[in-house]
Amino acid sequence: MTDRSNSAPHIDYDDLREWLAIAESLGEVKHVLGASWQEDIGLAAEAVLRAENGPCVVFEDIQGCPKGFRLLLNMFAGQRRAPTFGFPAGTDKWDLSNGFREAYLTQPKILPHVMVESGPVFENIMLGDDVDVEKFPAPVWHEKDGGRYIGTGTYSITRDPDEGWLNAGAYRAQVHDAKSVGVLMAAGHHGQIHREKYFARGEKMPLVMVLGGDPLAFFYGGTEAPYGVFELDIIGGMRGRPVEMVTGKVTGLPFPANAEIVLEGYVSPERRETEGPFGEWTGHYAGGASQVHVLDIKAIYYRNEPILLGVPPMGAGPDEMARYRAVMRSAMVKQNMVAAGVPEVQKVWCHEVGGSRMLHGVSIKQRYPGHAVQAGMIAAQCGAAAYASKYVVVVDDDVDVTDLEQLMWAMLTRTEPKQSIQFIEGSWDSPADPVLTPEKRAARDMTHSVAVINACRPFHWRDKFPPSNAPSAAVAKKAKEKFGWLLDAKS
Ligand SMILES: Cc1cc2nc3c(=O)[nH]c(=O)nc-3n(C[C@H](O)[C@H](O)[C@H](O)COP(=O)(O)O)c2cc1C
Ligand SMILES: [Mn+2]
């Protein structure tokens, strides 16, 4: 990899195969032959997805699947993380997030997609009676899952029927039968807003679901982009190259010409199926089994030797999904705060524990009374953070919020709980939140409270606040130089 530490980032791939070649060149890909979708792939996910430096795994010759059909697991770990966003391999997570913000968010460039006649996604086509989604290696990911989840590393494209704009959002999908999969769209997500508009007109919603393709498109599909903006035009801007798209033969919706697998069809108001439970990103089978709208598949397009992308949530601790989301959302939340007029925001980190959604650390240089509360409230409710967020901790800039231990130390020692915690009620929640009561679920009231914790030194007596006993940089260096050897195993 060339040293680009002083230059603008550059994204060296356009699709999943070119990305895979980069991961291969870093020596980070392992191939597994003959695994089962019923159990083995889920076991492998359990084994590798939590590790910071686990391999990317490509499953081939999957039992019972057509020859050549593949599944790829674990894009975002090891050295390959940074090149995925166009940065030099090995860039650490804070520099990656901050670099992402500076390069792609401070002056966002939108480059509209272009339509092309054809592309590799049309190499194979199943239409009408030939449609059989069960041919693809959708795994049972967790031991108590209610079925095979084909849609994890996925995003779906829909069009606003009133305003005409396109959206790409990641919605998980369980296989129901050869011609239908579920599409779970939580209230408030752009795809769900589109759906409600179609249903209010008494119409079914056209939808294309992309399963495997450009990693960036999947990452953006699953992260909070502004309302009214097509995520694929954002990534066109990031690359400086527009996404090339082809036209679906049934719905006329566009999808990337280089996608691996695409399902095309309609979501109708009348049809729902029971699906789940599913081992959610909150570490619980939270939604149980519930009635979910379904995509009636009219066409499937796929490349030769198609690669299904698998990004299952692993639950309690940090996993692959939490790792990439932390990088992107931390950048987006900081940028949202700056755009909302909060001065002197230093670092923002959406912590991996809790799926990079539930716990946010924000550091500021306090400048005026009320600054910390303003920062916390906006961080809690801005567009990039509001969904499912639970705790925001605001600290002074001597605390490194990317370090969970430091963040908790500041929270424990610089708060007076009764005074320092404020609550926002009725805030936007995810159905994956296990504390939503059965009554709230039945009423579709997916809301909860959010704690905004001011763990800054109190502004009006900050000069009298006891100094921390963290060593100065000079003392820390000296201690290491003089006595660091005491920790050596050999001495
Ligand atoms: C792997 C993955 C799976 C997701 N599954 C769902 C889901 O099933 N339902 C949902 O509403 N959101 C899901 N999300 C979250 C949304 O994709 C995310 O909030 C996104 O910003 C929604 O985009 P939109 O507002 O443009 O529709 C998932 C995200 C990822 C990364
Ligand atoms: Mn969107």
Radius of gyration: 23 Å
Instruction: Indicate the percent of residues in helices.
Output: 25-40%
Q: How many individual helices?
A: 13
Rounded to the nearest angstrom, the distance between the terminal CA atoms is 37 Å
Q: Describe the main β-sheet briefly.
A: 9 strands, antiparallel
Q: Provide the β-strand percentage band.
A: 15-25%
Number of strands: 21
Q: Output mean pLDDT.
A: 96
> In the CATH hierarchy, what is the architecture of the largest domain at level 2?
Roll
Structural class computed from helices and strand pairing:
alpha+beta
Provide the CATH top-level class of the largest domain.
Mainly Beta
Low-pLDDT windows of residues? none
CATH level-3 fold name of the largest domain: Pnp Oxidase, Chain A
The dominant shape is globular
- Cofactors and ligands: flavin mononucleotide, manganese (II) ion
Please, how many domains?
Answer: 3
Summarize the structure.
Helices cover 25% and strands 25% of the residues.
Write a concise keyword list for the protein shown above.
alpha+beta; UbiD C-terminal domain-like; nine-stranded antiparallel β-sheet; five-stranded mixed β-sheet; 21 strands; binds flavin mononucleotide; binds manganese (II) ion
Describe the model:
The protein is an alpha+beta fold and 491 residues long. The chain has 3 domains: 1-107, no CATH class; 108-305, Electron Transport, Fmn-binding Protein, Chain A (Pnp Oxidase, Chain A); 320-474, UbiD C-terminal domain-like. Helices cover 25% and strands 25% of the residues. It has helices spanning 16-25, 40-48, 81-84, 93-105, 190-200, 215-221, 231-239, 320-339, 371-381, 404-413, 417-420, 438-442, 473-483, and strands at 29-33, 56-60, 70-73, 114-115, 124-127, 149-151, 154-159, 166-169, 173-177, 180-182, 205-211, 244-247, 254-256, 261-275, 290-302, 307-310, 345-350, 359-364, 391-396, 421-428, 447-454. The strands form 4 sheets. Strands 5, 6, 7, 8, 9, 10, 11, 14 and 15 form a 9-stranded antiparallel sheet that branches. The chain has a 5-stranded mixed sheet with strand order 17-18-19-21-20, sandwiched between helices. Strands 1-2-3-16 form a 4-stranded mixed sheet. Helix 9 (371-381) links the parallel strand 18 and strand 19. Helix 6 (215-221) crosses helix 7. The longest helix is centred in the C-terminal third of the chain and has 20 residues, at 320-339. The radius of gyration is 23 Å and the shape is globular. It starts with 15 loop residues before the first helix and ends in an 8-residue tail after the last helix. The model has no long low-confidence stretch (mean pLDDT 96). The structure holds flavin mononucleotide and manganese (II) ion.
